[in-house]
Structure formats: structure tokens, C-alpha cells
Write a structure and sequence with these properties.
Length: about 180
């Protein structure tokens, strides 16, 4: 997979055989892809594309906080059609936003407040993104497999969130 940012062409390589090793390959590559781009939406779009390519998840993308409506609004993603707006505290995404912490759901059908954007989704992880101590959005990933996500995903996607948060701050300063 290649991405073109300005005059720099990035070739992405994935060869790891286990999840943690794959994250250790993917995160520096995402950091490189987003390093020179100040546009927040472009960085989220490329991040979703890299994660989809590397892990093959059913759906991966972002929801951003709309403070006027107190909802999460769909942002860049990879996968099938998605829910457009999610109220504060509702569903897995809204709960991660409200709690300000990562939420891992091994079986979405057993989750009491799961919002089903697709009946094919079986497990989910949602990681909040912060700026100045407040949640500005979430990274959401869904799998067609039960219990796809675990502590390793929470750890490494948390590290990815820190990379994206730095780029968010840079985009705010550039504006």
C-alpha cells in the first residue's frame, strides 16, 4: 500500500505474524504518514485506511464530538455504511466518550446498549481521543469475529490515540 503526502511517498509493509508485533510495525508507519500533515481529517482518513489494510477489521474509523448537539458525528472510516450520529453516553462509542476510557466488547449482542450499525459486527473496541483533557472523538473498530479485541488492542490503540492527539494539537495550532 502506498500513500502520497506532499512529495513523500510512503510504502507500508506488514509482515508480523502476531498481533502485538503487527502493532509494533503499524504504529511507526502511521506516525510517519501523519507526521507532516496538519489536516486532522486527512490524518484520520489515512489512519483508518492503514488499520483496515493491516488488520482486516470489518469496520474501522472515527467519530468526532459535536459540542453543539452533544453527539458523536461520523468522521473518516473504512468499511460499510455506518451510523451517522451517536448521542453522549449511548452505545459503545458514546460510553467510551462519557467514561473517557477504552471500552472493549467481546460480544456486541450481549452488550446492553450496543447500537447495531451492522448485524455482521460481533465485537468492538472504542478508544477515546483527547485534547486539553476533554474527549474530542473516538477511534472505533468492529470485527465480524467474537472476542477479536483484547488488552493488546487496548494498549496499542491507546498509543495510536496519543500519536493522533499530538497531530490534532498541531492542526489546531496551524489553524
Amino acid at each position: 500500500m502506498y500513500t502520497n503526502i506532499g512529495d513523500v511517498m510512503h510504502a507500508l509493509h506488514f509482515s508480523a505474524s502476531d498481533k502485538a508485533a503487527l502493532y509494533r510495525e503499524v504504529l511507526p508507519q502511521i506516525e510517519s504518514v501523519v507526521a507532516d500533515e496538519a489536516d486532522w481529517v486527512a490524518n484520520l482518513a489515512n489512519t483508518a485506511a492503514v488499520l483496515k489494510e493491516a488488520f482486516g477489521w470489518f469496520w474501522v474509523g472515527f467519530y468526532l464530538v459535536d459540542t453543539r448537539s452533544d453527539e458523536l458525528v461520523l468522521a473518516p472510516f473504512q468499511g460499510p455504511l455506518a451510523c451517522t450520529r451517536i448521542p453522549f453516553g449511548r452505545g459503545v462509542c458514546g460510553q467510551a466518550w462519557a467514561k473517557g476510557e477504552t471500552v472493549v466488547v467481546g460480544d456486541v449482542n450481549a452488550h446492553p446498549d450496543h447500537i447495531a450499525c451492522s448485524s455482521l459486527s460481533r465485537s468492538e473496541i472504542v478508544v477515546p481521543l483527547f485534547s486539553d483533557g476533554r474527549c474530542v472523538g473516538v477511534l472505533d473498530a468492529d470485527s465480524e469475529h467474537l472476542a477479536q479485541f483484547d488488552e493488546a488492542d487496548a494498549l496499542y490503540l491507546g498509543k495510536l490515540a496519543k500519536i493522533l492527539e499530538k497531530r490534532f494539537e498541531a492542526s489546531r495550532q496551524a489553524a
